[in-house]
Write a structure and sequence with these properties.
With 305 residues, the chain is α+β, with helices and mostly antiparallel strands. It has one domain: Muramoyl-pentapeptide Carboxypeptidase, domain 2 (2-Layer Sandwich). Helices cover 26% and strands 15% of the residues. It contains 8 helices and 13 strands. It has helices spanning 2-16, 45-49, 98-111, 160-165, 185-195, 207-216, 262-273, 297-303; strands spanning 61-65, 68-72, 75-76, 80-81, 84-86, 95-96, 120-122, 145-149, 172-173, 178-179, 200-205, 227-229, 236-241. The strands form 5 sheets. It has a 4-stranded mixed sheet with strand order 8-13-11-12, with helices on one face. α6 crosses α7. It is globular. The structure holds zinc ion. Zinc ion binds next to β8.
Length: 305
């Protein structure tokens, strides 16, 4: 138990310096293969990928890990669909692999069956060619991660401007130890539906939400294994898909530990309520990824025209 708590303390330390980055302790496939194609390329990858506004004219593929990779042949999620709207269009992050776009079509159709939900408001996915971003996420690099707003959409005719100004809603209290009164059975139904989808590898949500779902779950509990407590994720939840079978260069993450993860979630919440002292020797912050640290294929993805 002491060792386990020490591990949690380490996680706390790592989490503090990253935004929306379920990568550090959750394993980001950081062993990305480095090919000779871009070895020695010390250019900062986010400065390159962060300024590309079109996808690559290549077959769809994810390369590397969720927090160290890129995507070829990305699709743009239509700005509005029958059961969704993409938010914050100015960010240019509504790009993903085809499997991700299909998943959003399906999950939002399910969400639209829930009382009070016209569908889903979709937050950040990936950049047109994936890769590291100038701001925000450490992951979301391979076209397989997506953020879904917690705000139940009352309508799906938001203008472009409204999609910039509207905010999602906070679902937590006590720093994420508990859900607040905005939490509904519909949130749980949508999260459960997502977790039961075989395309999904993990879902990140604040700790109090996982504990709440553990308490309320009826019947089969296998799906709870994929619901992972993480910092943030109280205005949105983050869905991460498995590597598509067709993407040979995509690096999967280790599956979540066996079991429903409910005891771990209780420990996570306990850590929120009783935070350990800060790590006196925190690991040095990681510098920005260079092109040499990405899979070799990402150099080709970046320049394909
Ligand atoms: Zn995310």
């Amino acid at each position: 138990m002491v060792r386990y708590l020490a591990g949690i303390a380490l996680i706390l330390g790592l989490a503090a310096c990253q935004t929306d980055s379920p990568a550090a302790s959750e394993g980001d496939g950081a062993t990305a293969s480095v090919s000779s194609q871009n070895s020695g390329d010390t250019r900062i990858a986010k400065e390159l990928f962060g300024h590309v506004s079109s996808s690559s004219p290549l077959p769809p593929a994810s390369y590397g890990g969720y927090a160290r990779g890129c995507q070829a042949g990305a699709e743009q999620l239509p700005e509005s669909g029958p059961t969704w709207q993409a938010m914050r269009l100015s960010r240019g992050r509504n790009w993903a692999q085809p499997v991700t776009v299909s998943f959003i079509e399906d999950l939002s159709a399910f969400a639209a069956t829930q009382p009070g939900w016209a569908g889903l408001y979709v937050g950040d996915m990936s950049q047109p060619r994936g890769g590291p971003m100038l701001t925000g996420h450490a992951s979301h690099q391979t076209g397989l991660d997506m953020d879904i707003w917690m705000l139940p959409p009352s309508r799906l005719n938001l203008t472009r401007d409204e999609r910039e100004s509207l905010s999602s809603i906070d679902m937590q209290r006590a720093g994420g130890a508990y859900v607040n009164s905005s939490w509904t059975p519909q949130h749980e139904a949508i999260l459960r539906h997502a977790a039961e989808d075989p395309r999904v590898a993990r879902i990140f949500v604040f700790g109090g939400a996982k504990v709440e779902m553990c308490r309320n779950a009826t019947g089969n509990r296998d799906w709870l294994r994929k619901i992972r407590p993480w910092w943030g994720h109280n205005y949105h939840f983050h869905v991460r898909l498995n590597c598509p079978a067709s993407s040979a260069g995509c690096e999967p993450q280790d599956p979540p530990p066996p079991g429903d993860g409910c005891e771990d979630a209780e420990a996570w919440v306990d850590m929120i309520l009783h935070p350990p002292p800060p790590d006196p020797n925190p690991p040095p912050p990681r510098g920005p990824l260079t092109m040499a640290e990405l899979p070799g294929q990402c150099a080709a993805v970046l320049t394909a025209n």
